[in-house]
Amino acid sequence: MDEAIIELYETIERSLPRKNSQVRRAIEKSRLTIADILAKHANPDGTIPRGKVNVILDEILALENEIYRNLQRELRLVLEDVAQKTTIGLAEAIIAYIGISQLIEVVGLPAALAELTIGVAEAVFSALTGTTYRNHVNSSVNSAFNRIGEDGLVLNDRIRNIAQVLRNEIEVTLRQSIRRGEGTTEIFRRLEQVFSDLSWRLDVITETEALYTLRQTIGKFAEDSGIFKALKIVDFPHGEPGEHERHKCYIYAHRDEHGLGEGVYPVGTRKIRNPHPRCRSVLLPVLIDGLE
Ligand SMILES: [Zn+2]
């Protein structure tokens, strides 16, 4: 079963570059909005009349909210996808490795589940957790949005911050370019740089929250289902050489804080769900007695 869960983590991890570009594209849309605004005010030769600076910057103000909303929407989609794949993968792994008959015998799930031919995984999931796939997915995604980081910020604050920085950089660039009498082609080249300078910050958010959502989806299942007696955090070395040993995931994974074994924590433990930004660690289930 551990292998099935690790495979699930790897599938999600492999999809991260695609998810990063999906979120990056959400802000790229705003470049088109800027192009429209500039085109409206440009001279026939592509330069922008200096007297139009303030009108243009006024229109750019509204961009901050557009960026914020687009980012929020896209991140939610990305996290929903992670939570969905994790929920379904988890339910399938449990059926494949524990088996419905053991769940009926040991956990006392309704015997009628053995007769089902369609929607088996979802029915077993609901019987174990008392909730639906849909609710489980929503709860994981909401948890990513509501989690307060060590800096006291929630996800929406981080997105808002990126939207503010981006709008501000756009403003500075436009002000300078128009003053220098640069044409729209040159302005677009500069703006492209402004957007790409910020994309690494977006990637950190996307990867951190996607991997958090994955661990949260498993942690919440462990709490709701009662078939895991604990969760074992397994760290995968990442980052620069020598850096990993300072990661909290490494520390948590090599400690026996509860006398349950190295890296083994009660299912409700929060800190192992997000040891640090961009953490690659995984949570593996420790099954209750009788189910191993
Ligand atoms: Zn880590």
Describe, in plain words, how this protein is organized in 3D:
The structure is a single chain. The chain has helices spanning 2-14, 16-41, 53-61, 63-97, 100-107, 120-129, 133-146, 155-179, 184-225, 248-253; strands at 228-234, 264-265, 282-287. With 292 residues, the protein is mainly α. The chain contains 10 helices and 3 strands, in the order H-H-H-H-H-H-H-H-H-E-H-E-E. Strands 2-1-3 form a 3-stranded antiparallel beta sheet. It is elongated. The chain has one domain (2-226). Zinc ion binds next to loops.
Biggest sheet: strand arrangement: 2-1-3
What Rg do the Cα atoms give?
24 Å
For the biggest sheet, the summary is: 3 strands, antiparallel
Structural class: mainly alpha
Cα distance spanning the termini: 10 Å
- Total beta-strand segments: 3
Average pLDDT for all residues: 93
Any idea how many domains? 1
**Sequence stretches where pLDDT stays below 50 over 5 or more residues:** none
Q: Helicity, in percent?
A: 55-70%
Name the beta content range: 5-15%
